[in-house]
């Protein structure tokens, strides 16, 4: 476990204040707008550390950018993420877990790990799209 520095704590707090996933660049911009002198590389390192320790979720957006959010669930889990508003719902996915293990085993793989996140439009954003 890494030692807790003021920079790491600032990143942790900024991440917790965001509702959905956020990029390192966006988080850095927000910190700087609030007077922080933290550097972008430090934000990236802190986010990577928080993700490695299970304090933050990290995934790749549909555009290929790494995005993060404060993790509210410990252990392996998946997400439903709205592409428009960023609403995120943590979900269990027993069927996905069984499928991943079965497919890995069928191909002779052991110790299989996976990342599954589903991007779509939440009910509110879907309703707004059809109303236009």
TrEMBL record:
Cellular component per GO, a single term: cytosol
An example molecular function term from Gene Ontology annotations: DNA-binding transcription factor activity
GO biological process, one term: negative regulation of DNA-templated transcription
Entry keywords, A to Z: Cytoplasm, DNA-binding, Iron, Metal-binding, Repressor, Transcription, Transcription regulation, Zinc
Subunit structure: Homodimer.
Name this protein carries in UniProt: Transcriptional repressor
Pfam families, per database record: FUR
UniProt organism field: Humibacter ginsenosidimutans
Compartments, record wording: Cytoplasm
Residues holding Zn(2+): 82, 85, 122, 125
Binding residue positions for Fe cation: 76, 97, 114
Cofactor(s), by name: Mn(2+); Fe(2+); Zn(2+)
Gene3D superfamilies, sorted: 3.30.1490.190, Winged helix-like DNA-binding domain superfamily/Winged helix DNA-binding domain (1.10.10.10)
Cofactor binding annotation: Binds 1 Mn(2+) or Fe(2+) ion per subunit. Binds 1 zinc ion per subunit.
Lineage, highest ranks first: Bacteria, Bacillati, Actinomycetota, Actinomycetes, Micrococcales
Annotated family: Belongs to the Fur family.
SUPFAM superfamilies assigned to the protein according to its UniProt record, in alphabetical order: Winged helix' DNA-binding domain (SSF46785)
